[in-house]
Specification:
Blueprint lengths: L2 H7 L3 E7 L9 E4 L2 E14 L3 H12 L4 E5 L6 H4 L8 H6 L5 H11 L7 H14 L3 E4 L2 E7 L5 E8 L2 E12 L5 H5 L10 E11 L8 E14 L2 E16 L4 H15 L4 E4 L39 E3 L8 H6 L3 H21 L26 E7 L10 E4 L2 E14 L5 H10 L4 E5 L24 H9 L8 H14 L3 E4 L2 E8 L2 E9 L2 E12 L5 H5 L4 E2 L37 H15 L18 E2 L7 H5 L7 E7 L10 H5 L7 E6 L11 E3 L8 H7 L2 H20 L9 H10 L18 H11 L6 H13 L1 H14 L3 H13 L6 H9 L22 H11 L6 H9 L7 H11 L9 H8 L23 H5 L17 H17 L5 H10 L4 H14 L1
Parallel strand pairs: 3-4, 3-8, 4-5, 8-13, 16-17, 16-21, 17-18, 21-26
Antiparallel strand pairs: 1-2, 1-14, 2-16, 3-15, 6-7, 7-8, 9-11, 9-12, 10-11, 14-19, 19-20, 20-21, 22-23, 24-25
Amino acid sequence: MTVRSWLAHAFSSCFILLSFSVATPAADYLLESPKEIPVIADVDVLVAGGSSGAVAAACEAARHGARVFLIAPRPHLGDDLASTMRLWLDDQEAADLPTAEPAVRSLLAECFGDGRLTTPLRVKAAMDRALLESSVRYLTGCYATDVLRDEHGRITGVVMANRSGRQAVLADVIIDATDQAVVSRLAGARFRPFQPGVRTCTHIVIGGSLQSGEHLRGETKSFSYQTASGGGQVALPVHQYAIDVDLADNRPETHYRAEQIVRDRTWSKGVERFSESLSYLPSDTIVGRKRGDDWSGAERVDLDAFRPEGVSQLYVLSAYADLGETAAAALQRLPERLHLGARIGRQAAFDAKQATALTRSRIRENSDSLRPSNADPPAASVQIGENLDGIRALNSGSVLVGQRELPVLGRYDVVVVGGGTSGAPAAIAAAGAGAKTLVVESLHELGGVGTVGLIAAYWYGLRRGFTKYVDDQVNPGSDRWNAAEKAEWFRQELRRRGADIWFGTLGCGTLVEEGRVRGVVLATPWGRGAVLAQTVVDATGNADIAAWAGAPTRYSISELGSLNVQIAGFPERPLSRWYVNTCYTMVDDADVLDVWHLMVWRRHEFRDKPVFDVGQLIDSRDRRRVVGDATLTVPDILNGRTFPDTISQHSSNFDAAAFPDSPLLLISDAKGPVFRTDVPYRCLLPRGLDGLLVVGLGCSAERDAMTLIRMQPDLQNQGYAAGLAAAEAARMGGSTRSVDIRALQAQLIREGLLDQRVHTDEDSYPLSDEVIDLAVQTVTDPNADQGKTLGALARVLAHPDRAIPPLRAAYQASSTPQARRTCAQILGVLGDPVGVPTLIEAIEANDGWDAGVSLTSQRKTGNTFSPLDRLVIALGLSRAPNSTPALVAKLRRLHPDSELSHFKAIALALSAHLPCPDAVDPLVELLRQPGMAGHATPPPGELNPSRPGESSSLIANRLVTVDDDRAAGRTNLNKAYKELIVATLLYHCGDHGDLGRATLQQYAHDLHGHLARYAETALTEQE
């Protein structure tokens, strides 16, 4: 890996020493050592939680002069409506509207218009708009996990966890609007004792039939949702249930299991949406400064009922406030919640103004509320790996947090983090093999891109083995399915096999002991805790668990230093339509800021359209990949390479949503044909780590190879195979490298996942000299068809050092210009200059450029290089000193409207000749041409308008592909891509008046994560 590539993919996976021993099963907690947490905001008021009341509080605090930051765990806001499916106003709520204050009426109007029934999308978009127009900064997908205190024990902020790691927000006043009042618990607030027994939970379902049974009471509402189906309109009923659930204790696992019981009782065929979590009035409310037994209305209730006794500068804005049953029930009405939120927001702004300057330093020791009172002391040591880099463009220093307790939430044989395309099958297999299994999923549905992601259809892939088992029950005889039914099938199958399912829970760290992964750290609605495991399966699709454990990874920037990532999308979610395949923008799944912006932008785009909802999952095709004991390459695929440890088999074309960067594909296009390939078990083993398997988009493969092996049928089978391996490893003590691969293959063959021949396969590499010599003859044969040529080229590139001598000989002996040019091109890509005169001659024969290609969602034909692009790339990669004049001449022929493929070609070519002073002047001239510059998306601070009404134009600025109907003007992703390429090349060639550096600094704070990472890497490497 080059220095540039390494810098691009590495981040500070921080290891923290913990007092603990995995061999001591009685230990109930771990002691984390002190650490520095990056600070991303220092505000007057922090709102934790994404309910409508939380949004009202944040907006009102901001309107009264407070600097406000809001964090919410779900991917959206308004979860008390959009996540519960409580999408209507009842008679009493409608009657409350005339007396509501103007701000409340305005927000309700945004949500409901003139009616009393709304949609999740309308709610989510209204909440976004309200915060943006009130200049409230906010992030979704963020869990409050710790509180910060000063030396006097006063609360000074919150630490949160998300896909970007952990960060701190400092604040003078905190409004705790979390589902479980977690901030108040962490702050040491007094709570009334939990009362074991039956709770009556509310659960809402859209679609299906009304269910009945013991402890289950339901009604079908008088209204319904209309949707198109079968050429006509269908009314989807809305069912509201009251369900009696026995909660024996207040442990998180008890609540998780209760959620599954509620779903078991209310599911029926035809269900499309449902409440995501339990909804009930809790018994363990805070002990407030004053008890609110009576309800005199939100405008008159004493706010001391929402202030925990003995804790200053903290409000509880949820059912955990100190209210009697009557008052708590009245607060379930939406206008009252909004009105109360606005009141608390105003008061919080006033309190913040009165607050004295506080010293924000450290968490007080032993403040975590989740530790049982009879916890055993820790024994030895283990490490926790996590990302403490902060959030780019938001970082503003750090805060020292002191030693704290991390509770152990559970112990399992196998923990699967991520319940998606590969994760759910992995957990099903592990549980079926007898392992005590837990699957953790941050969303509230299983199945990943094929269910929550709305790509509910197969493209290619081998529909056999476990995939056939699923298909026979979910979508027999069809390559399409009902996404809700498939997600539910995964859930029921896991339940049937005895696995535990924890929804709404995020993996945020890895426990490591002497190179062995021993468990994971989770962010839950009850706070942060550890789960111990014999074996862990990283099914995050992003290699999160492996990366935090210190495994080497690759992402976004190729070995040649080129920005190259497949484009993705974020789908709408209509009713009764399950296939919405989107592909139009570049997004980094591991970047919470980038994901937030895409989701807000998409909701803004659809807010006035008749769309029921948007999704909750990015349709990604390319994510962070681990570097494993083996890495699958494009030549491996085209050569049909066999392995002794094959664990999954895959079939597809190269479904490229980005320009290629594999050397083979820089020489020749491989679009169209369908190939089959084996994937070895070693690709699932992160280099240097034991006890961990990485599946799905996170496994070890070249990026171009991943485009072929990421088909849903094959990843389902791969996940299932990995689950069996994890169960076997757990049985043997946790070592993933001790699995008997031949025995595992025999089982997979019996179950139809693998071909019979796999059981006796050996590695088909290295190829013989005779095979390579014949391949050289084939690639220069003008009569060979594409299939033979590609296969021969793959054999040449499988052993480049051995192929160069016969290629040189073939070049010298070539009888035709085409054969000579082919040899020169291959040699050039391999870094050999023998054919440079031929390449220069061919390039100079073209006065300008040929027809190039832009970055496009048309993956079958786009996102590739033109013939002239390929010659330019080969000339540059030859590294011959005499090649630069021809390359600079081509550079001078570029203009702002030239296709992106030409820019990428010249950048790849000149990057092999850095520094290149001769390229500086033409690069400066190009960057200064009208339309070439100014396409960076502003940093987050500029997304908070100073005047109301500015949010719409600011949030609309998302970079999209050239073929998208929104790609006018500066929102065009291709234009930004070209500017970034030119600025980077200028900076590396020597720069001119800091022009390249200044442009890169703009992009280093860009909202688009991949552009920011590339710019930051370019700046860092040069320094």
